[in-house]
């Protein structure tokens, strides 16, 4: 492989929270050769033909997305609330998961997954003599070797990580939806606190003996239909943080089954997107039709994300539509004092009702589930829960 392909540039990106002088508060974006990424895509296509990843892995898998995992978790929680039974969920956080993967462990997992030796050697060649520089405000650092972890920004790394997690969790994972993984985001569910605590400890042992590390401070525990005195979960003697809500794959799930906070998050995400393109949307020289296209491309997807898995009440749907109309009025330079009807505002911008778009998304998702095989529907949508006696 050409030596130029082995070189990369690391760009630190501040997370906008915590100490600005702490390296842990920065995301690492690695810029690699485009030709190298093309070569990685070729290798990835060939690896996917021979490697079968477990059904519990939703990340970067064909015909699966974050919506699948969010839907499975919400359906499971909903059925336990309907049955008035407790459901215990632990959201496991891995410390710098991609950066901690030992190279020898990667080669071992690839061979165990049935990857031919010639492809193992190809991937080994990609990682051999890899080096990078860090780009900062005053220039670039000196070049240094990278001898552990997967390449950040690589087209092949997500699938390699899925192979590693598939092998490391082989002895401890349960069937979906009791165990779900989206890359390094792991959810463990059980009907009792003792069972979920035992599962968490077995996961920790299985991962840490192979070079990974579970972060107890960032791992969180949530109980659905909690009874008094149900207690909490401990990991290696340390109490796991207990929460009433958790942001799972960008969608907020609440232990009481409400969706109000998720709707508020969607509204906030919509406003964040609107502000990013406000220079275009508020420009009087740009036509309303173009503004509508920009709105539908940038703002609306942020507001609709994950809502096909949420049971929206009329009040919550109204909150979304009110926020959307405020954005459209700002974009068109219209206020409520102008006494212009909402239908005219939507027609001018060529933007349909948000509630109708949510229902369309639900119908598309329903069709997606129905087209899958029966095993998929049973495991994500047909969990049987015995009611409380």
Main sheet specs: 5 strands, mixed
Radius of gyration: 24 Å
Distance between termini? 66 Å
Low-confidence stretches: none
The number of domains is 2
Structural class per helix/strand content?
A: alpha+beta
Mean pLDDT: 90
Number of helices: 14
EC number: 3.1.26.4
Family: Belongs to the beta type-B retroviral polymerase family. HERV class-II K(HML-2) pol subfamily.
Pfam families: RVT_1
InterPro entries: DNA/RNA_pol_sf, Rev_trsase/Diguanyl_cyclase, RT_dom
Please tell me about this protein's structure:
By secondary structure, this protein is α+β, with helices and mostly antiparallel strands. The chain has 2 domains: 240 residues, no CATH class; 112 residues, no CATH class. The protein is 46% helix and 15% strand. It has 14 helices and 14 strands. The strands form 4 sheets. Strands 1, 2, 4, 5 and 6 form a 5-stranded mixed beta sheet that branches. Strand 10 and strand 11 form a beta hairpin. Helix 8 runs antiparallel to helix 10, helix 8 runs parallel beside helix 11 and helix 11 crosses helix 12. The longest helix is centred in the C-terminal third of the chain and has 19 residues.
């Amino acid at each position: 492989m050409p030596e130029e392909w082995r070189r990369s540039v690391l760009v630190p990106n501040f997370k906008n929270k915590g100490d600005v002088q702490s390296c842990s508060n920065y995301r690492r974006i690695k810029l690699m050769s485009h030709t190298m990424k093309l070569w990685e895509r070729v290798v990835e296509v060939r690896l996917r033909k021979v490697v079968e990843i477990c059904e519990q892995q939703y990340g970067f898998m064909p015909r699966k997305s974050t919506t699948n995992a969010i839907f499975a978790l919400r359906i499971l929680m909903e059925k336990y609330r309907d049955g008035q039974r407790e459901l215990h969920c632990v959201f496991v956080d891995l410390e710098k998961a991609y950066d901690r993967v030992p190279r020898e462990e990667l080669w071992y997992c690839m061979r165990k997954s049935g990857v031919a030796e010639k492809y193992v050697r190809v991937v080994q060649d990609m990682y051999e003599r890899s080096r990078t520089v860090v780009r900062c405000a005053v220039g670039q650092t000196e070049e240094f070797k990278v001898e552990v972890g997967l390449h950040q920004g690589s087209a092949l790394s997500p699938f390699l990580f899925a192979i590693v997690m598939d092998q490391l969790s082989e002895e401890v994972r349960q069937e979906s939806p009791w165990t779900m993984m989206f890359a390094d985001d792991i959810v463990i569910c059980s009907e009792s606190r003792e069972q979920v605590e035992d599962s968490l400890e077995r996961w920790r042992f299985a991962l840490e003996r192979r070079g990974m590390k579970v972060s107890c401070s960032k791992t969180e525990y949530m109980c659905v239909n909690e009874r008094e005195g149900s207690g909490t979960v401990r990991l290696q003697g340390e109490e796991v943080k207990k929460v009433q809500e958790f942001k799972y794959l960008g969608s907020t799930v609440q232990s009481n089954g409400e969706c109000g906070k998720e709707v508020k998050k969607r509204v906030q995400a919509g406003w964040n997107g609107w502000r990013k393109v406000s220079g275009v949307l508020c420009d009087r020289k740009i036509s309303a039709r173009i503004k509508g296209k920009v709105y539908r491309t940038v703002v609306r997807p942020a507001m609709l994300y994950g809502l096909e898995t949420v049971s929206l009440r009329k009040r919550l749907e109204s909150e979304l539509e009110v926020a959307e109309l405020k954005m459209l009025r700002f974009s068109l330079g219209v206020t409520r004092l102008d006494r212009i009807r909402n239908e005219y505002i939507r027609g001018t911008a060529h933007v349909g009702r948000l509630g109708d778009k949510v229902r369309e998304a639900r119908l598309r998702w329903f069709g997606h589930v129905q087209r899958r095989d029966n095993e998929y529907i049973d495991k994500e949508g047909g969990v049987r829960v015995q009611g409380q006696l």
